[in-house]
């Protein structure tokens, strides 16, 4: 229960960040940077009586209905929450806050809009949720063509960006295209950074105590490897473990307390699959 509350709080914060980027950087500067929100920016240019939030909400309802018909109901509640949460928040900001551009410089709007959007979406994607929109169109396109999800999403976003360029001019179209191209890789790097683990290799005469600390105090596994000192040719027990950043700090502190002569190396690990971490694909 506590974990679920935490996840929904993270999704909510991510949704707020994405909404801020759209309403205060993209929409006021006519940057149609892909997605349903980008399409909404184009539509509001032709129908000023509408707003980005209302169009996004209506579009997501339509897309979810279309997706249920064409690809089935393979959408979790967290995705539905994030999708409609974003749409409602956009509508609320449009209706009651009358948002103005925080900067009218297209380069600054593109940079900060992309960074804020990427941070928000990374938070949402890292909880295995999505904001719907063009993600749904990409799934539909993926089912009925040979395109994978990534290419399908890029195609849909490119079409939206092209519509923006035709509506607002080539300059704004190119800036919007840059937003789309940099958004995905930035999201990937942020998610990798958040989930990054550390590997530690330890050589110590107190190897048993250190292994016990990792197993019993941190509730993590570790492996005892056989090693030999190349100089003295004495046998050495080497401990190998993969831990989170916080756990690494605890192990370092413990090692310094029990064996000041211990030797250890620490390296970054981008992905770990297996017991206690991510599920192994195919199992």
Automatic annotation (TrEMBL):
Give the DUF2179 domain ranges.
Answer: 220-274
- How does the record classify its membrane topology? Multi-pass membrane protein
One annotated Gene Ontology cellular component of this protein: plasma membrane
| Entry's transmembrane regions | 7-26, 46-68, 75-94, 106-127, 147-168, 174-195
Which terms are listed as keywords in the entry? Answer: Cell membrane, Membrane, Transmembrane, Transmembrane helix
Q: Where in the cell is it found?
A: Cell membrane
Which Gene3D superfamilies is this protein grouped with? 3.30.70.120
Has keyword Transmembrane helix? yes
Q: What InterPro entries does UniProt report for this protein, alphabetically? A: DUF2179 (IPR019264), N-reg_PII/ATP_PRibTrfase_C (IPR015867), UPF0750_membrane (IPR051461), YitT (IPR003740)
**This protein's name:** DUF2179 domain-containing protein
């Amino acid at each position: 229960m506590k974990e679920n509350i935490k996840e929904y709080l993270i999704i909510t914060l991510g949704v707020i960040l994405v909404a801020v980027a759209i309403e205060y950087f993209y929409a006021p500067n006519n940057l149609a940077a892909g997605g349903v929100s980008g399409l909404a920016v184009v539509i509001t240019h032709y129908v000023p009586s509408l707003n980005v939030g209302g169009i996004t909400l209506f579009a997501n309802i339509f897309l979810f209905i279309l997706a249920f018909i064409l690809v089935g109901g393979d959408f979790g509640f967290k995705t539905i929450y994030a999708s409609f949460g974003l749409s409602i928040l956009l509508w609320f900001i449009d209706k009651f806050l009358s948002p103005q551009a925080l900067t009218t410089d297209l380069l600054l709007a593109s940079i900060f809009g992309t960074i804020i959007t990427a941070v928000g979406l990374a938070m949402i994607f890292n909880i295995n949720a999505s904001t719907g929109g063009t993600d749904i169109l990409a799934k539909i396109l993926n089912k009925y063509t040979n395109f994978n999800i990534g290419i399908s999403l890029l195609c849909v976003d490119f079409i939206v960006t092209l519509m923006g360029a035709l509506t607002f001019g080539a300059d704004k179209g190119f800036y919007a295209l840059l937003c789309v191209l940099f958004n995905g890789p930035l999201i990937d790097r942020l998610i990798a950074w958040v989930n990054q683990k550390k590997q530690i290799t330890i050589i110590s005469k107190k190897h048993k105590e250190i292994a016990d600390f990792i197993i019993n105090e941190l509730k993590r596994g570790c492996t005892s490897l056989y090693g030999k000192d190349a100089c003295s040719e004495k046998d050495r027990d080497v401990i190998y473990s993969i831990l989170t950043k916080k756990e690494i700090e605890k192990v370092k502190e413990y090692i310094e307390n029990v064996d000041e002569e211990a030797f250890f190396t620490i390296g970054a690990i981008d992905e770990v699959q297996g017991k206690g971490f991510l599920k192994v694909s195919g199992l």
